[in-house]
Amino acid sequence: MRAAVIQFPGSNCDRDMAVAIRDITGAETTLVWHRAGELPEGLDLIAIPGGFSYGDYLRSGAMAARSPVMQSVIKAAERGVPVLGVCNGFQILTEAGLLPGALMRNAGIRFVCRTVGLTVENNRSAFTRGYSAGEQVRIPVAHHDGNYFADSDTLDRLEGESRVAFRYTENVNGSARNIAGVLNAGGNVLGMMPHPERMTEAVHGGSDGRRVFEGLLRQIA
Amino acid sequence: MKTRIFVTLKNGVLDPQGKAIHHAIEGLGFAGVHDVRAGRLIEIEHEPGVSKADLEVMCTKLLANMVIENFEIEQA
Questions:
Q1: In which domain, by residue range, is B33 found?
Q2: Is the Cβ pair B65, A108 closer than 8 Å?
Q3: A80 secondary structure, DSSP code
Q4: How many domains does chain B have?
């Protein structure tokens, strides 16, 4: 298995993401700087990590989404390569048009940094197959702009097509219909605000995030 | 040549920042303010050859997120 973690100026979860992928899946994991025009050959996973790319200037994820490497990420996603965007990575994927909707300032204005409850809504994607449908898990969030917005037609379509991967069990940030993570139409692109890579071993206080990576390993095997 | 681009949230999109500013205005003792919406002003200095169409593409591709925002182009 081969994985790439994309680094932007201001990414800060890139190493954590690479460690989680490497430790859990054994994938040969490469950090790829955002100016790269081409991605490594034969990737089985592309991860867009959390952080504050470009200092969140203009809008969270807006600048990163227009980086040279994102054209290659979009092409790979169209070919069906799994793409996982966490936190700022989710914001970047929506800004790049790979996922619908937008992540706006948290409804309560405050930065939210704590472990939250999530319900697994869709357990049939490569990322979520390790969970049971309806299962509740605990994974940390740390964001200022996690308030998921889409118009009601888009929300209805996402729900109708089972593309809501995770929902918060409580109102964390004002997200429409408590959506915490969404899939693209092909099911190979997942964006989520919670950080599964921060909940993968006992020392993290739990390992509920581990199965996101284990599911990807099963997909490849 | 200078162009001003105003980026505002679409109607119906909740604006937590505008709401916080509204609360702060009320906290200063001003009554009678019904609503506050926050937006962004972007000033662009450019050659006359940069067309309005070019500016519109800049807006739709980068300066505004068309999922949640509208833009207005004001040329001096």
A1: 2-75
A2: no
A3: T
A4: 1
A62 Cα to chain B: minimum distance (Å): 7
With an 8 Å Cβ cutoff, the interface of chain B facing chain A consists of 13-14, 16-17, 20, 61-63, 65, 67-68
Which residue is associated with the tokens 């490849």? A220
Tokens of A27: 């994938």
Alpha carbon distance A109, A39 (integer Å): 37
CB atoms within 10 A of CB A170: 9
Q: Which residue range forms the structural domain that includes residue A198? A: 2-220
CATH number for the domain spanning B23: value is 3.30.1280.10
Provide the domain count of chain A.
1
From A111's Cα to the closest Cα of chain B, the distance in A is: 13
Query: Is the alpha carbon torsion for B23, B25, B29, B33 positive or negative?
Result: negative
Q: Select which of A34, A87, A95, A143 is catalytic.
A: A87
Q: Catalytic annotation on A195?
A: yes
CA distance linking residue A208 with residue B11, whole number of Å: 39
DSSP letters of A5-32? EEE-TTB-SHHHHHHHHHHHH--EEEEE
Pairing of the two strands B69-75 and B2-9? antiparallel
User: What's the CATH code of the domain at A157?
Assistant: 3.40.50.880
Place of tokens 């809008």: A59
Residue by residue, pLDDT tens for chain A (221 residues) are 999 999 999 999 999 999 999 999 999 999 999 998 899 999 999 999 999 999 999 999 999 999 999 999 999 999 999 999 999 999 999 999 999 999 999 998 899 999 999 999 999 999 999 999 999 999 999 999 999 999 999 999 999 999 999 999 999 999 999 999 999 999 999 999 999 999 999 999 999 999 999 998 877 66
